[in-house]
Amino acid sequence: MTMAVTLTDQDKLTLRTAAYGAVSLLAAAGAAGSPHRIATEGSIALASATGPIGHVLAAKTRDIKLNGKSVAELADHVLPALTAAMSLLRKQDPAEADNFRNTVNVAVAAATRTHQGRPSPTVAEMVRKITGALEAANGGAPSRAAAGQDRPELQQVLQEIVDSGFTGVTLRVRDERGEWAGSAGVRRLGHSAEPPVNGHVRIGSNTKTFTATVVLQLVGEGKLGLDDPVDDYLPEFGLDRRITVRMLLQHTSGVFNFTGEYYDDGTVVPGIVWSGQEWVDNRFRPYRPEELVRLALSKPARFEPGTDWSYSNTNYVLARLLVEKVTGRSLAEEMHRLILGPLGLSGTVVPDTSPELPEPHAHAYYRYEEAGREETVDVTRQNPSWISTGGDMISTTQDLQTFISALMGGRLLPAHLLAEMCTPEPKAGYGLGVFVQETACGGTVITHNGGIAGHGALMYSTPDGSRTLTAALNYVDDVTMSLAEAFQKATRRLVDEVFCGGRAGSAQ
Is 205 an active-site residue? Predict the structure, then answer.
């Protein structure tokens, strides 16, 4: 048979691993239901493929080693293989790349039809991840099927955000109309390609929600108590005995913010260097979390523990150290055990000191003046240990959607701890790692947003997890944070459109 593409034996193995691996991933995700039937139906669909792809997939699959792997292990193995398969086919023959994608999508549809009614949340999430991996080789631009439906009103909002000064933006919405993903702007200055719809982004303070969830899961396991003094676990810092675990998560400890404090009277007390040319020149410098905490504790507390509210990144670095002390494992390991593994969040990274950002991704920039001349530097690669658990994590809009939906849907925390998380203090409406906010049309959203040197991420959900908005932004940051107002306006515009139908003040 004459093939339209030239494939090495390794290429063929990649195609088979990707296709049959996708079916195996769905079978593992549906293990509580009928995994054998899922695998059978999906494999039958793959065997019916035509053309060169059918020729490759019809070959024996004994060289594929996928048995006995967990959902997370399979996701780590299969999803990159799907992207690699699409990439190698697209370089040779785009028609065969489309054939392969359609073949896998048919197999996925056949496999998920084996469930009674709707697929389980885990199976549905794996379907979304498989679709995203297939599209990643095409720059993250979703096919019409992946996008779910045309949403011109959402695409218009994205363009408005770009027009306000952002380099690029990607958005993912899930609501009663299904799931939609889109992008606008550019992924890199001087280039025309749009940001990848499911690209990686530094999520900034969204890290706090992940970290708070881990702490609350450990509370649920009985390893610590919300109202325990933190000093019981971290005596080496000499913390005020009145500071509790709850106060760390809710920003009511009064501990100085190591990135600096800004007081109502205009007084500024600096912390570490995190802006300007000095930061740009030293952006690969490593910090240890203990170093950040000790710097903070060398400064006066902002207020007596439990008497006020003030956002402090130090609280969450202490939370990280608390997790590591009570478990004997790194936060990254605990995050994987408790959240990333169970939810299959293969695009989410706890980087510690690594400067790398996985592909695909949009680029982040920082602008400063030197000798009267404006300089703009690509700061996509940086050592995020300067912010640590205050905002160092990497994720995708799809993983953020999965996480916040699972969290609010009760899949990560028992009901009483989820209620604690979503009970806000009165000054700022902050719960335990989340903000609880009212929309302009009278509804409630659970949220956290974050920004870090040219990258930003939004994460919103209804309290039951049924409607979500996640977004990633890339932009040119600067010492004056000149896009801060535009960032807030963009956020309000998106929330209004998604949670109020674009009609502020109407019933949700």
Answer: yes
